[in-house]
Amino acid sequence: MQRLSNGYFDSRIVFVVPVEPEGLGWMEQRLANGWRYGGERNNSKLIHPLLKRYGDLDDREKEKDRDQIRHIPDMVRLAKYRFKWLDVKQPGQTAPPS
Predict the structure, then answer these.
(1) N or C: which end of the chain has fewer CB within 10 A?
(2) b/e per residue, 25-47, with b = 16+ CB within 10 A?
């Protein structure tokens, strides 16, 4: 990863984050609020057709989760925060990674 001289990340850096947990968080929230799986969405009966395993979702639905992850740097900036590089030693490591 590239670190700027001020110790902060270059905001143009592309990073990979697993998106499945994003979808799981959404599903867990719905299930905790009484929603259940059904073929056609019905808000009054708390039925949603996307309450299924992440791997069973179509690419269009998975792209929604990827989009949420892609916008994390923007949300961090809007909140007036910055990403900062932390030098963290791994077990058995004598120097921080370069």
Answers:
(1) C
(2) ebbeebeeeebeeeeeeeeeeee
